Amino acid sequence: MNTAIDTSVIVIFSVFIMLVGFSFSRTGRNLKSFFAAGEAVPWFIGGLSLFMSFFSAGTFVAWGSIAYKYGWVAVTIQWTMCIGGLVTGLYLAPKWKATGNLTAAEFIRERLGSGVQRSYIYIFMIVSLLIKGSVLYSVARLVSSSLGFPLMPSTVVLGLFMIAYTAVGGLWAVMVTDILQFVILTAAVLLIIPLAFDAAGGVDRFLHFSPEGFFSVVNGEYTWGFIFAFALYHIFYIGGNWTFVQRYTSVDTPRSASKVAYLFAGLYIISPVLWMLPPMLYKLINPALTGLDTENAYLMVCRHVLPAGLMGLILTGMYFSTSASANTALNVVSAVFTNDIYKGRINPGADDKKLMLVARLSSWLFGLGMIGIALIVPYIGGIVEFTLSIGAITGGPLLAPPIWALFSKRLNGKATLFITVVSLGANLLFKMILPFTSGIRLNRADEMLLGVGLPFLMLLAYEIYARAVGKTSEEYNRFQKIKAERKISAQAPDPEEAAAIQQQNIFGLKVIAFSLAFIALLLYILCFFAAGSAALVAGIATVVLLLALIPLRASFKNAHRAVQPVKN
């Protein structure tokens, strides 16, 4: 590893990504274009963006730690995300798109009432900051450990950089960088795997000398009960998290929304195997890691096998994959605040210029809160404990009721609040209070089952009761009227806005093509420092260069359609 070369790669790519974000600074005309990209995002871009929004450096730190300690079960855990994606594609994504709402919060207000929306908004913003603060900590830990920088200043600097291009560029800036991070990270991982196998002594040694149970589908505290509960949790999380709902509402049709989720699911069949092999191989190279040091397993195998410059590449990929995840959350939290609090309650008559100013300022405000959370993660048990605990406590209570409301005409706002408060309270009781007051502590599986199972059972019980008494929610009837009115108004789109959205999307595709070509150029340059890996790096660079032709061709097609005369 050469610190000067790796740092140069990080700086060059960071400046480039910032410029990409700034290039979209003039493309957001209003909230619809800034937060939903005009509801005309190509589904394959939405799917890759969803994949990268879900993904972060926490994947390498948290799941990499589990892969190092327990082996294949880290892959099994991540395959539950594939299940969540498939169910979402079949049932949930098209439902979200069919609502016609810009955000999940807007749907909650129209379907369940403003009281439920206010409660959910405040809880959602807190939970989002907690989760995204944890992933910022993950990447700051990786960068500081690998380059020798102090953790706290690294966290602050990386967090500020992360916020900047989201506050400037909106959803298209986030999605373009999502695509770039997908390519960078995939290229880096494909470089690591053969080098790690070579360092570990080859495939035969890996298969025959790994610890007992290392290739078991379940292992340690990650039992079949935990896997089942985690799969159920990911149905709610992928199908109902406000961050991901934005990916389903920003495409053109319900069918495209399903394709977004299907692409996510397909990527999560293959990618966990590729990601988890390096830390599993490092178990043979260095079996001595214990405690929180196992969170560095991925970083250590990279440092062990990667030539100069390529360590900087993978750190850049990890950092910006985390920024993709965190920036998507910031974009959605800012959208919720601007659209549903500021515009909905504080200043209903605000014009587009003022709303755009509030959108950008709120991105900075919430981003600073995220940095604050990241700074305290080391003091509360590390990334694995923090991530799983937040998911177990909040996932089911917050995500299950709105998903249920997509299908039920009986669920009302009062029942939703009751179910949310009771299940949240029960989760907090068993996670935060009883372990310290009475010594009662749930294992991982029971903790996750309680988190997702209790709200599900309460929703089912209420549905059965409401059906038995023939009760239909007043909020449901009101929502149907709002949908009908929205459908009528949507039949007469503004031609000027439609043309601007089309131009925004053409511009986005061209930026993606140019950016992929830049990545390929950087990889070709790194061939000079890659020694024996130069041929492998050059091959991957060529593939990336060819991939640049896909969005370039799509931009030309869209431009051609944009100039075609409208036929009567």
| Terminal Cα span | 64 Å
User: Residue share in helices?
Assistant: over 70%
> Can you tell me the overall shape?
globular
Instruction: Encode the helix/strand succession as letters.
Output: HHHHHHHHHHHHHHHHHHHHHH
| CA-atom Rg in angstroms | 23 Å
Per DSSP, what share of the residues sits in E-state strands of 2 or more residues?
under 5%
Please, what is the average pLDDT?
80
Topology, number of strands: 0
Helix/strand-derived category reads: mainly alpha
Largest sheet: none
| SS element count, helices | 22
Detailed description of the structure:
It is a single chain. By secondary structure, the chain is mainly α. It contains 22 helices and no strands. The protein is globular and about 70 Å long. Mean pLDDT is 80; it is low at 28-38.
Outline of this structure?
This protein has 568 residues and is mainly α.
Features of the shown structure:
single chain, mainly alpha, 22 helices
Which helices and strands, and how do they pair?
Blueprint: H1 3-22, H2 31-36, H3 43-54, H4 57-70, H5 73-99, H6 104-112, H7 114-147, H8 151-200, H9 203-209, H10 224-240, H11 242-249, H12 254-285, H13 297-305, H14 310-346, H15 352-376, H16 383-407, H17 413-437, H18 444-468, H19 474-489, H20 495-526, H21 534-547, H22 549-562
Helix pairs in contact: 1-8, 1-14, 3-8, 3-11, 3-12, 3-14, 4-5, 4-7, 4-12, 5-10, 5-12, 6-7, 7-8, 7-14, 7-15, 7-16, 8-12, 8-13, 8-14, 8-15, 8-20, 8-21, 10-11, 10-16, 10-18, 11-14, 12-13, 14-15, 16-17, 16-18, 17-18, 20-21, 20-22
